[in-house]
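Team,

Forwarding the record for the chain on the shared tracking sheet. I've put the sequence and predicted structure together so nobody has to dig through attachments.
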Amino acid sequence: MYNRDTIAAISTPCGEGAIGIVRLSGSNALKIISTLFKPKNKNSWKKKKTHTLHFGTLVFKGIELDEVVVSLMKSPNSYTGEDIVEINCHGGWVILSKILEAVCAMNARLAEPGEFTKRAFLNEKLELSQAEAVVDLIKAKTDTAAGIALKQLKGTGYKKIKQLNTALIECMANIEANLDFSDQNLDVEPVSKTVKRLEKIKTALEAMIENARKANLFKLGLHITIVGRTNVGKSSLANRLMKNRKIIVTSLPGTTRDVIEEVINICGIPVVIADTAGIRKHSGKIEEIGQRMTREKVKVTDVVLAVFDLSRRFTPDDKEIMRHIRGKTGILLFNKSDITCRMNKNRLKSEFPHWPEVEISAKTGRNIKRLKEEIYKLTVGDSPVELEETFISNIRQLEALKFAYISVKDALKALKKGFPEDIAAIEIKEALNSIGKITGETTDEEILTSIFSKFCVGK
């Protein structure tokens, strides 16, 4: 499956730091470090026990590179399942580069992105879903996203996937037994029992897909765009949500002329919030460019926050806003609720009956908390995300799960309509193949390369 050569990489970020790490994995890792390392305690070093630390000096071609602490983790009880050596040195990039150069001169090679974790998967130290959870944990932007990745890393969900796999294999075995021994008086399971089993599998897959959809929100986040005519308080709202004053706010119409984005945390979901140029009919050339960018942003956003000024009557510019946001998912925001109300809200509510509405004051912060709760409910739903039940947390796994669901549904349809059982058998095989892509049992090398290329080099 892979070359069993020894790989090496710097496993700490670029820049200066107290400690830097150069990691080696492979059959020659111990031999390489034995050549370069001069231990302070020679007797302890001679034993080279696994999971031990050793202090000393690293020397290459007679030149001292640094004082280091060497960590030894021997096969098979290591992260990759191979011999691993970690050289803990001072965190300067010059020192780390020299040490990496030295180990590569001793017949190690530079690791590819994610190759340490890929070897852990190939050596059956991690399942594929667990390996993917490693990069999810590294890239998590909120506590909730990190919690989901950690559950996946621990392999909690893998057991449930395997249970589904086993149940599908049993269905397959019963159908094949019916096909092979239909002319013999053998005690085989009737089709009705196989149908009941497949119904349970279908229900389980539905629950998994819904949990996975929610988990992806916490991992990938949302894009929210604030729209409205000029001077309704879009930038004031953006500043309130961002908890800072990054955006210039004035009483002059058209102050914001560009799309301004910032990442914020709303109820555990990483959200890219975009403040946009106000839309109005009569504007200059620069504003027109900003308004064109606003309209393009609305087309691709997940959620629209449509802001209207309660203190003023409905205007043609408000009507223009309505035209651009039809067909989107969003929330009606009635700003300036701290001032006398002059707008007739019923017109807007009748145009967007399924959109929740919130009266806010971007100036005082009134109902901003409620707005965040409405964003959460609109995208995640009323029911909380069950971290214990969430173990599919990326698009690749979710798509595989959806394909398995479609195949199970088609198998059920075939059996219920009395079609030949071998048609159902084909669909169940497809479902098994899709689930195998989650666990890594039926995943080809090209997909593996794509998955692990998303990792940093030293992981």
